Amino acid sequence: MGVAFGILVFGGIIGISWYFSRLAERDDGRDLSDVGVAIMEFGRAFPNEALRSLHATADGKAVFARLHDNRAGFMRNMRGHYACHVIEKGRLEAQMLSQGPGLHVVFADFPQHNGDYMFSSADEAAEVSLWMLSNYLSESDLKDAGTPPEKPQT
User: Per-residue DSSP letters for the chain?
Assistant: First the structure.
């Protein structure tokens, strides 16, 4: 009787362990690459910003957004939620990658998100890079902001 009870308890522990491991695998497999989830997260973070257009990276881990006033937004999958940012003017550098349809992006305010972002097509990467252009500071903007112009070297 004692041996049968021990086998039953041991089998129950194995069964419960298997069940919880399956639940954990299912939660790990939850995919936040859905653009709809990104829209919801961005709306929660910035309720007064209207989205015009979105482009997700090929792996679905980041979404670049064009906002209603031609500014840009950025959302990155942080394993359970999206980190959402509105990119302020002059706080970003972006370059096309030499290999593949992607961008190398450097965020001045969020260096943890710096890196290469690959898109499914070169057209998407080009469109996102155009959105980023509106976030660069031109020389006239620098002069208007009171930054002294560079002195020519003699």
Answer: -HHHHHHHHHHHHHHHHHHHHHHHHHHHT-----HHHHHHHHHHH-TTPPEEEEEE-TTSSEEEEEETTS-EEEEEE-SSSEEEEEEPTT-EEEEE-SSSSEEEEEESS-GGG-EEEE-SSHHHHHHHHHHHHTTSPPHHHHHHTTPPPPPPP-
Distance (Å, whole) CA 40 – CA 129: 24
Interatomic CA distance for residues 124 and 94, integer angstroms: 14
Spatial contact of 114 and 107, defined as CB atoms under 8 Å apart: yes
Provide the pLDDT confidence category of residue 52 given band limits of 50, 70 and 90.
confident
Q: What is the pLDDT of residue 149?
A: 47
Between CA 70 and CA 8 the distance in angstroms is: 65
**Predicted local distance difference test score (pLDDT) of residue 116:** 92
Nearest in space to 87 (alpha carbons), one of 146, 119, 128: 128
Are 109 and 76 in contact by the 8 Å Cβ rule? The answer is no
In whole angstroms, what is the distance from residue 88 CA to residue 128 CA? 15
The confidence score (pLDDT) of residue 14 equals: 92
